[in-house]
Structure formats: structure tokens, C-alpha cells
Amino acid sequence: MSHRNHGAVEVPAKRETSASAHHQRIGSREESRTALFMLLPMVVLLAIFVIWPLIFAFRQSMYQGNFYKPPVFVGLRFYKFVLTDPAFYQSLKVGGYYALIVVPGGMIIALLIASFIKTLGGKMASFMKTTVYLPTVVSAVIAAVLFKLIYADDGLANWLLHLINIAPQNFLNSPSLVIPAVSVPGIWLGLGMTTLIMLAGLLDIPESYTESAQIDGAGFFKRTIYITLPLLRNVLLYLFVTGLVASFQEFMLPLLIANGGPVNASTTPNLYIFNQFRSATPFAMTYSITASLLLFIVLGTISALVFRLIKSEKAVDG
User: Are 199 and 111 in contact (CB under 8 A)?
Assistant: First the structure.
């Protein structure tokens, strides 16, 4: 009799469990549909402006032709041409060298400025943020002209070197100095946005962490290394990856300041592709498209390696 009563009690419990699981599955499906519906516009835009152009560009890279003659199918021949061109690898080295200077240099300077602005308050902080952001609205063309005048033989750079008894330098005609010279306006133009993003990350760090470290006697550098940098990990990762991709593709500054010279010492990948496109050869268009796709693969691989080596974590909620 007790066994029957026990069975009569368990059947409704099983039904309740089954009904609860059924409702959970329905709720999960509805959430998935809502998420897919919200992602649909972005997927459509991605397909129209990214995926389809890539497919079309890959198709065009297998046809030799120009604007005046019908295209001729050549397969993957141009990939071999680009991959065996020493100038292509030279441009990758130049782009990497430029990025190696601009990205870490800009991030370090931005972190120092953002840390200083964080200590300010009221109108002074607003004034500093506005001042730091001003270079962002300056055109790259104007910046290139300005710094070309600065690097002239009788320009501001050599005048400053003369003050400290250093011989004048021919910045734009020296293969070893041209990329560091071009990197300075590159850092300057991107400093405003990088600083504001860094400042937003710093303001998101709970003050209790910094106060506890100060009580324990930690100075500015120790707080930066053991508290600030770990908590800024996601911000730093974002700035590093986006800055790396953008600086690797720098085009305007090397073109206007040094015209890719001397001896291609400032010819970045995009400038190399541009020079190939405007050449008077009958395969200029196909060659430049192929080089662009290979550059896309290089940048994608570098970004994937960065995300692989520096694994992002969820932000710490204070």
C-alpha cells in the first residue's frame, strides 16, 4: 500500500520536471531566434560589403586584363608572381617596422597621458581631453605637409638637434631614419582616440584597488604593472589589434612625406599595391588585386595569432 502511495506521489513530480524542461527548451529557442533576428542585419551587411567583394576579388585575380581588353583566364599564376617578388616582402617588412614603432609607442604615450588626465578634475580634465583629441581631426595630408617642413634641412627637427650639439640629419633621404620620421606623425594623429579609449578603461577600474595598493606602499609603476595593466587587458588588446592592422596599411603619410623612398625604404604594403596599380603594364589591375588579397591573408593571420597568444578575458566587475 505504501509502495502504491509512493508511486502516486512521484508521477506528478516527473510531469512537473518534464514540463519545466519543455518550457526551458521553448525559452531557449525563442532567445536563439531573437538573437539571430538581431544579428541578421549585420550578417547581411557583412555579406554585401565584405564576403561578396572578397569572392569577386578572388575571381578577378584569376583573370589577366585591364579596362580596355577582355580578361583572359590565368588561374593562380599571379599569386606566384607576387609571392616571388622581393619588393612585396620588402613592403611587408616596412609595414611591420612602421607598426612596431607606432603601435607600442602610441599606446605607451597614451597610457601616460590618460593616467595624468585621470588625476585631474573638472575643467582642467575637460581641457586636457579636448587638447589631446585635437590632432585626430587634423587631415593626414596637412600633417604630412607639416612634418615634411619639420624634417627639412633647415626645419624644426634639425634646429632642435643643433641646440643639443648634434649634427643635422637628412631624415627623409636616409633609409634608416625615414620610417622613424614618418612614425612620429603617425603616433601624433592617432594619439587622441587612443588616449580617450585608454582613459575610459582607467576610469572603469575601481578606486578601491588603487587605494589598497597605495596603503600597501605601492608606487605609480607598481600599481601600473600589477593593477592597471591586468585590468586594462581587453582595452589594450583592442587597441593593439586595431592599431596593428591600421598602421600596417598606412598609405598617406609614407606617400606624401617620403614618396616611398629612398630606395623603397618607406614603401608600405598599401603603397606598394598602389604603385603596382598605376604602373603602365597590361596586368597592373590583376597584380594589385592579387597583392591585396595576399595582404588580407597576412593581416588576418597576424590578428589570429595575436588573439591566440593574448587570450581575452571577461572584464572584471568592481
Answer: no
- Cα separation, 89 vs 83, in Å, equals 8
How far is Cα 70 from Cα 218, in angstroms, rounded to an integer?
70
How many other CB atoms are found less than 10 A from the CB of residue 84? Answer: 9
Query: Which residue, among 270, 265, 266, 237, has the nearest Cα to 251 in the 3D structure?
Result: 270
Which residues does 231 contact at the CB level (< 8 Å), separation at least 6?
A: 201, 205, 209, 316
Please name the amino acid found at residue 158.
N
Q: What's the helix, strand, coil split of the chain in %, to 5?
A: 75, 0, 25
Show the CA angle centred on residue 88, arms to residues 84 and 94, nearest 5°.
Answer: 145
Q: What value does the CA radius of gyration of the chain take, rounded to a whole number of Å?
A: 28
Prediction pTM value: 0.83
DSSP 166-216: -----GGG-TTTHHHHHHHHHHHHHHHHHHHHHHHHHHTS-HHHHHHHHHT
Tens-of-pLDDT digits for all 318 residues of the chain? 444 454 444 455 555 566 565 556 665 777 778 888 888 888 899 889 888 988 998 998 888 876 667 788 888 899 999 999 999 999 999 999 999 999 999 999 999 999 899 888 788 988 999 999 998 999 999 999 999 999 998 989 999 999 999 898 999 999 999 999 999 999 999 999 999 999 999 888 888 887 787 787 778 788 888 888 888 888 999 999 999 999 999 999 999 999 998 999 999 999 999 999 888 777 888 899 999 999 999 999 988 888 887 765 554 444
Nearest CA to 231 among 257, 195, 193, 198?
198
Dist. CA 204–CA 152, nearest whole Å: 44
